[in-house]
Design goal:
This is Serine protease. It comes from Spongiactinospora gelatinilytica. One of its GO terms (biological process) is proteolysis. Keywords: Signal. GO terms for molecular function: serine-type endopeptidase activity. The chain is mainly beta and 225 residues long. It has two domains: 115 residues, Thrombin, subunit H, CATH 2.40.10.10; 91 residues, Beta Barrel (Thrombin, subunit H), CATH 2.40.10. Helix content is 11%, strand content 36%. The protein is built from four helices and 15 strands. The strands form three sheets. The protein has a six-stranded antiparallel β-barrel with strand order 1-2-3-6-5-4. The longest helix has 10 residues.
């Protein structure tokens, strides 16, 4: 469980739990605010927005700073959702990233309420990362922000262009930020991936997509929505 040094720091505010409905069933995910022109943008996993080639999510709500059943900053609803065409047309795990332009709450942009993390594309592979999220399946219950840390390695199965690192987080952590250059004192870093999936025969490694040209193009559209 993340407590930070002297408190949770920025990451405790910028990371939130997500509640959504897809194909009539309720799900939970994680997401993070990032710097954007609109000051309304969060980044998550593509499958937290759209079921691959299937349906889009409904009732999508972001609760920043979530802890023990609620958050001090209230909740923000989705205004527009964005996923790469590689995800929406082929459910390509190498592009399992999504972005959401949020509605304001009480006239305020989410970035002005919680602050933001930086975001980068085409980053150097293999750099150390801190991974954050709200895993909800046992042994976790989704009530606290959890983290893993390590140095990502390429997908050894060669099935994706993703990187993986040792992490015992469970379902509900999907979409949580991978922060490079993370400073535990401030809780700030640069988002370079999000939690995406685990192979069924290896529950010890979490994989996240590499944010390259497609993700950069997605961000260019989403941050001005």
């Amino acid at each position: 469980v993340w407590s930070g040094r002297g408190g949770a720091g920025s990451v405790g505010r910028t990371t939130g739990r997500v509640f959504l409905t897809m194909a009539g069933s309720d799900f939970v995910c994680s997401a993070s605010t990032v710097r954007s022109a609109s000051r309304d943008l969060v980044v998550t996993a593509g499958h937290c927005l759209k079921d691959g080639t299937g349906e889009w999510a409904d009732n999508w709500i972001f609760v920043p700073g979530y802890r023990d059943g609620g958050g001090p900053y209230g909740s923000f609803t989705a205004r527009r959702m964005f996923v790469p065409r590689q995800w929406s047309q082929r459910a390509d795990d190498s592009h399992d990233v999504g972005m959401v332009a949020l509605n304001r709450r009480g006239g305020r942009h989410v970035a002005d309420v919680t602050g933001v993390q930086e975001i980068a594309f085409n980053a150097r592979r293999g750099g150390a990362a801190h991974v954050f999220g709200f895993p909800a399946d046992p042994p976790y219950d989704g009530r606290r922000l959890v983290y893993c840390a390590g140095r990502p390695r390429p997908d050894p199965h060669g099935q994706t262009h993703d990187q993986g690192l040792p992490c015992d987080m469970t379902a509900g952590a999907s979409g949580g930020p991978w922060l490079s250059g993370f400073d535990p004192r401030t809780g700030r870093g640069t988002l370079t991936s999000v939690s995406s999936f685990k192979y069924t025969d290896d529950e010890t490694v979490m994989y996240g997509p590499y944010l390259g040209a497609a993700a950069k193009d997605l961000y260019a559209r989403a941050q001005r929505a």
